[in-house]
Amino acid sequence: MAGVEGPVMNDSAVNVTLNDTEAAVAANASAKFVATPEGTAVAYGSLVVMALLPIFFGALRSVNCAKAKNSSDMPETITSRDAARFPIIASCTLFGLYLFFKIFSQEYINLLLSMYFFILGILALSHTLSPAMNKVFPASLPNKQYQLLFTQGTGETKEEIVNYEFDTKDLVCLGFSSVIGVWYLLKKHWIANNLFGLAFALNGVELLHLNNVSTGCILLGGLFIYDVFWVFGTNVMVTVAKSFEAPIKLVFPQDLLEKGLAANNFAMLGLGDIVIPGIFIALLLRFDVSLKKNSRTYFYTSFLAYVFGLGLTIYIMHTFKHAQPALLYLVPACIGFPVIVAVVKGELTDMFSYESSAEVLPHTPRLTHFPTVSGSPASLANSMQQKPNSPRRRRTNPSPM
Q: Which of 227, 255, 288, 350 is catalytic?
């Protein structure tokens, strides 16, 4: 018996050892994945293109948004006081999330966040697709009108809580966005993540307006310090970014050429590195429009500055093999280049005296809450929620933005 049991136990031990070794080799191979030069170029190039799209089109849409006559279509204006508080609130939010991930189960936190961003993503994507749907919707199909009305009280004390009007086009957008939302919720696929992320970024650039260039400098300057501290000074930013399963960042696989759509080694870019410079670039476009010179000098200058800053970020990150705070390079570029152009053209005073808030109605709601996650403004979510005491009027999209 003993002679028989010995070999059996040894074989078992050998099998366990081999299995452990194979698992360790597989894990080690995954951890040491090195992207090919082609895969790296495709990934970073795709991230740059995806970052530019919401900035360019969001800035264009911000001009029309600023001219909107309907109060429910008005953007939220960021004042200098809001901008000064932004880094402080963002830091508290970021560190709070870090503690949450350390104390509580990451699985349950991400489940709650997935449901939250599932709803917001559908609304944001619907709002993004609405202008395109208005152009492609067949004229032969009936476009019926609908109204969703909630009131409080009766008689003279009756008060409208929600008065939301929409049509068939809006329902089509909502239906398509819901399909993407279910795909994201069930599979967490990187393409679905990026569709939601692009929608959040575009809506942020369109609907969050800086009131003047000085406010923009305060905001970008504060977040410059915020980004550098939390990336270089601690591991908080990177930890939250990797733990936070929500469409608050754009991702693209570096092994796409090898694994196709099943690729899983991602390069990433936080939405904050798109939206924060993006709202400043959009401000400069509105300044260009206000000059009435049929020129977009400051918009194109800041846009090219963003490309330069983001390219520099990627180059340094790739060279030193370490996560980089993108705003470290984006902020000096996006502020410095337009200021130099303004000095050369003798329009520096005009630039800093320009008030974007003068283009909108006096009762434009102010943005008073700026939580950010991994450099990405969760304030997009705040701007997407209708204030409970302000009635909704006619809109062309089902999003409450």
A: 227
The residue written with tokens 């993503």 in the block is 121
Query: Is residue 203 within 8 Å of residue 385, measured between CB atoms?
Result: no
CA dihedral 130, 131, 135, 140 (to 10 degrees): 30
**Chain centroid to CA 158:** 38
- Distances in whole angstroms, Cα of residue 5 to Cα of each of 17, 19, 93: 18, 21, 59
Task: Say which amino acid occupies 15.
Answer: N
Tell me if residue 11 is catalytic: no
Gap between the Cα atoms of 156 and 158, Å rounded: 5
* Amino acid, single-letter form, for residue 69: K
Convert the pLDDT of each residue in 311-369 to its tens digit: 999 999 888 888 889 999 999 999 999 999 999 999 999 999 999 765 543 333 444 33
- What are the helix (H) ranges across 137-211? 168-187, 190-207
For the entire predicted model, the pTM comes to 0.79
Which sign, positive or negative, has the C-alpha torsion 134, 136, 137, 141? positive
Distance spanning both ends of the chain, measured CA to CA: 77
